[in-house]
Design the sequence.
């Protein structure tokens, strides 16, 4: 009888303990979700506050609206450009297409070569001096050369963006591989991991955070360079829109092009950041 009572008394205690653990786990998840929501709110709130401050300064005359028009005036011009008489949709499409093509053309070789330089020491010894020599050269300064080689067509824009994307990607990928902690390498060796297993389970996951960071940097550089390329040698795109608006002294239209470029940068950065959260959550949580 006492054994039965003890048994029946132990079961509810074990059930209570499991419920407590579940509640604590749910509470911890809720705290993480709440913190993540607050971070996203701060991310979206800061640009809104900046635009609100700009609007107040413009409306009160503290800044010259001839050069710094109020965001509301820029928004009105944005709506106008979206209409049938504007070219904003087409120019945005052209710019995004050029960035994406250049990003792929420069990013894929950057990842492959960067990882190869990290894993293969002779390859790193051969290519590192060349990359160290070419990387400091301002990428915009080679635009005239690219125009001579590829002309004023699409190829010159793609190549300029690809060059700008390549260097931050290759350097971050190499740094990601070289930055893997030696303890992980020793554990893999002690457990008899082969080269393929080491690359799959240790090296590539360890380098992945810096690989994604390199892609984010490369994409930002690509947006900068595509605007320069369109200003110098194009008849369409957001860069051309900004240049043409400057020639006509249409300041609101110029700001529309600048804001759209900025929004594209924010959107792509947020997408890559969400990709980081999904692919390398352990690295994002430490930031």
Sequence:
């Amino acid at each position: 009888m006492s054994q039965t009572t003890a048994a029946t008394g132990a079961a509810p205690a074990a059930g209570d303990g499991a419920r407590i653990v579940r509640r604590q786990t749910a509470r911890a998840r809720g705290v993480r979700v709440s913190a993540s929501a607050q971070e996203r709110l701060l991310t979206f709130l800061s640009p809104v506050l900046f635009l609100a401050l700009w609007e107040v300064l413009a409306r009160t005359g503290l800044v010259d609206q001839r050069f710094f028009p109020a965001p509301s005036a820029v928004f009105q011009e944005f709506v106008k450009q979206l209409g049938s008489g504007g070219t904003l949709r087409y120019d945005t499409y052209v710019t995004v297409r050029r960035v994406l093509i250049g990003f792929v053309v420069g990013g894929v070789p950057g990842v492959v070569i960067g990882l190869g330089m990290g894993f293969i020491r002779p390859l790193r010894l051969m290519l590192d001096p060349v990359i160290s020599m070419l990387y400091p050269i301002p990428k915009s300064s080679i635009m005239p050369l690219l125009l001579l080689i590829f002309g004023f067509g699409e190829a010159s824009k793609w190549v300029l963006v690809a060059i700008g994307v390549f260097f931050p990607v290759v350097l971050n990928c190499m740094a990601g591989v070289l930055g893997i902690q030696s303890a992980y390498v020793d554990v893999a060796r002690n457990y008899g991991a082969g080269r393929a297993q080491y690359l799959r389970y240790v090296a590539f996951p360890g380098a992945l955070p810096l690989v994604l960071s390199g892609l984010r940097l490369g994409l930002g550089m690509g947006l900068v360079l595509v605007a320069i390329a369109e200003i110098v040698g194009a008849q369409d795109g957001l860069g051309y829109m900004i240049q043409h608006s400057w020639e006509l002294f249409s300041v609101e239209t110029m700001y529309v092009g600048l804001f759209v470029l900025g929004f594209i940068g924010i959107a792509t950065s947020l997408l890559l950041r969400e990709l980081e959260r999904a692919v390398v959550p352990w690295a994002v949580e430490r930031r």
